[in-house]
Amino acid sequence: MESERIQQLMRPSIRALTPYSSARNEFSGHASIFIDANENFTDFIGGEGRNRYPDPKHVLLKKSIEETLGFASDRIVLGNGSDEIIDLLFRIFCEPKEDGVVLLPPTYGAYQVFADINDVSITSIPLTATYDLDMSAIRERMEELNTQRSKMLFICSPNNPSGNSFPLAQIQEIASLFQGITVVDEAYIDFSEQESAASLIDDNGRIVVLRTLSKAWGLANVRIGFAIADPQIVRIMHHVKYPYNLSGIQQETAVRALAEKTRVHDAVRQIISERERIASFLPSLSYVEQVYHSDANFILVKVLDADLLYTSLLNKGIIIRNRSRVIGCSGCVRITVGSRDENDTLLTALKELEEVLA
């Protein structure tokens, strides 16, 4: 039944799709002569294989993810950042002008952007004033959502911009009640003690978990995101993605980064320590109204004048994120945890602005 439901949720044109098969998709094993893919036989930059197409199946990178993070290779789809994965899901499950998605604002703004790009309607169920999931409102709206053409529901945990994680039991309940695809975005989970929603997939194949190497793994410039999903969803995502969506350079860099697990975990502990140091300092400032608990590598802060704080720090060469125009975040700024030296400079600047902003 679950398999049939997933099939029904897909766009008919996607279910019937015959995927493009590249030369490298059709080849496995070892060879010494490659004259199958219309490549230039000359490597002009010195034996690094840049003249050859990259592995479209991402075999070595998936193996590294499995060994380092514990997610089975056959459950993984890799993308050019998590944004490509999100766009893939829209293209697979949402018929333009007909289907919709459910968002829980304030949340990651790209969900709405991709909905708009794909001409997909949005139903919003805002978080509570304390940025918790409004379970009563979600339960009340669920029958409506399931009878409408709501195909996906996005949960960002830890949430961006609020920074808090949502209880796994609540995510499980929502995914069980919602008859579409529940997408759980765990971009910041490395900074949290929250268990991954990937543990729920065996019992509910309509859950898709998003992860990234941009945050904790320090590869924002490399653009590596991935989904963990039921093999049926993985298969169709591979059919729809671009044949060579990740360059060999991206894949090689990610494999090297994943081999640095100990260093990365040490860095994450340092970020968490700095996050708590900043969070402890901020309430001493007279213009700070509230510091929200964070399980991420950033802190959401409510201040008396977010615009003035943003501009004042910008004049000092410090850039933070003004979130005051985001629904549910009036008067708020988001501060990313930097190095200890960067954080010291920030805290000094914030103290110096006391007279201006109080």
Summarize the structure.
This protein has 358 residues and is an alpha/beta fold.
Question: How would you describe this structure to a colleague?
Answer:
Helix 4 crosses helix 5. This protein has 2 domains: 258 residues, Type I PLP-dependent aspartate aminotransferase-like (Major domain) (Aspartate Aminotransferase, domain 2), CATH 3.40.640; 96 residues, Alpha-Beta Complex (Aspartate Aminotransferase, domain 1), CATH 3.90.1150.10. It is an alpha/beta fold and 358 residues long. The chain contains 13 helices and 11 strands. Strand 2, helix 5 and strand 3 form a beta-alpha-beta unit. A 7-stranded mixed β-sheet has the order 1-7-6-5-4-2-3, with helices on both faces. It has a 4-stranded antiparallel β-sheet with strand order 8-9-11-10, covered by helices on one side. Helix content is 38%, strand content 14%.
List keywords for this structure.
alpha/beta, globular, 358 residues, 13 helices, 2 domains, single chain, seven-stranded mixed beta sheet, 11 strands, Aspartate Aminotransferase, domain 2, Aspartate Aminotransferase, domain 1, 38% helix, four-stranded antiparallel beta sheet
What oligomeric state do these chains adopt? single chain
* Gap from first CA to last CA: 60 Å
Provide the CATH topology of the largest domain.
Aspartate Aminotransferase, domain 2
Largest sheet report: 7 strands, mixed
